[in-house]
Amino acid sequence: MGIGCGKHYIIMTNRPKDPGLKVTYYIRKYLEERGAACIICADNETEEQIRLKEGGDTYRSDCMIVLGGDGTMLKAARETAASGIPLLGVNLGTVGYLAEVEPLALDLALEKLLREEYTIEERMMLSGRVLREDGSGETAQVHALNDVTITRRGPLQIIQFRIWVNGQVLNSYGADGIVIATPTGSTGYNMSAGGPIVEPGASLILLTPICPHTLNTRSIILRAEDEVVVEIGERQSGQEQEVEVNFDGSRCLILKSGDRLKVTRSDKTTSIMKLSELSFLERLHRKMSE
């Protein structure tokens, strides 16, 4: 019996980053030759479609191998949040903080995977709901591994925010937007907006304004258990403001003046498979030196 006998893998591929699925087919061939079973998901299939493809809900993958960049990893995280399937990222993108395996080290990574020479990190996620000012109720819950961001929509005007934490008013200010991030998301939009970089295994919530129109507004670090509510104000002219809320840069909701976004720690987590013994600080140093 081979070392991969009885193991099942899903290969999720960002097709534009793997033209002709060259790397995808290579991974499948490598794993199947060693006794493992693989299915390929390269056409934006959801996890439910993957299960149906396998003939029902009983199919259980040992790992989802994600080919692309961090954006593809975030998509995979959303689709596996309910199942807890661990993710292994192969970086076919640029920076790749989440996708740790580089193409030149692919064979070694697959060998470690088959031999179960890895650790699994549980990363916290955020959960967001929109509370409508018109009384129409809350939207469905949406989960995010990296961040929930509010950005302007339409004319280039300042967004007026009012922020509560655990029911108490924290601050009010005008800005181009706000990032509510997890430690995993600290190296994403949060970092670009000037927020701190945090070890991804930590448990906390980051609030970082995007281009704040004041001199005394900085990032704020909160407990993971805190509840954050952001209310959208009116434009300075008194007209209704319209903004976008994005979950991991993908799922988009529209908010208007008076609407509130409630963000808390999600009851879901993302399982990230780690093959390398490099620490977060070592990986961070390498990425920043590239």
Structure explained in plain terms:
With 290 residues, this protein is α+β, with helices and mostly antiparallel strands. It has two domains: 8-118 and 275-289, Rossmann fold, CATH 3.40.50; 125-268, Tumour Suppressor Smad4. 18% of the residues lie in helices and 38% in strands. It contains six helices and 15 strands. Strands 5, 6, 7, 8, 9, 10, 11, 12, 13, 14 and 15 form an eleven-stranded antiparallel beta sheet that branches. Strands 2-1-3-4 form a four-stranded parallel beta sheet, sandwiched between helices. It is elongated. Mean pLDDT is 86; it is low at 52-58.
Would you tell me the structural class of the helices and strands? alpha+beta
Q: Using the coordinates above, name the CATH class of the largest domain.
A: Mainly Beta
Task: Work out the count of structural domains.
Answer: 2
Strand count: 15
- Strand and helix order: EHEHEHEHEEEEEHEEEEEEH
| Proportion of residues in extended strands | 35-45%
Looking at CATH, the homologous superfamily of the largest domain is: Probable inorganic polyphosphate/atp-NAD kinase, domain 2
Number of helices: 6
Mean pLDDT: 86
The CATH topology label of the largest domain is Tumour Suppressor Smad4
Question: Shape, please?
Answer: elongated
Provide the helix percentage: 10-25%
Task: List segments where confidence is low: pLDDT < 50 over at least 5 consecutive residues.
Answer: 52-58
Proper CATH architecture of the largest domain = Sandwich
Keywords: ATP-binding, Cytoplasm, Kinase, NAD, NADP, Nucleotide-binding, Transferase
GO biological process, one term: NAD+ metabolic process
Family: Belongs to the NAD kinase family.
EC number: 2.7.1.23
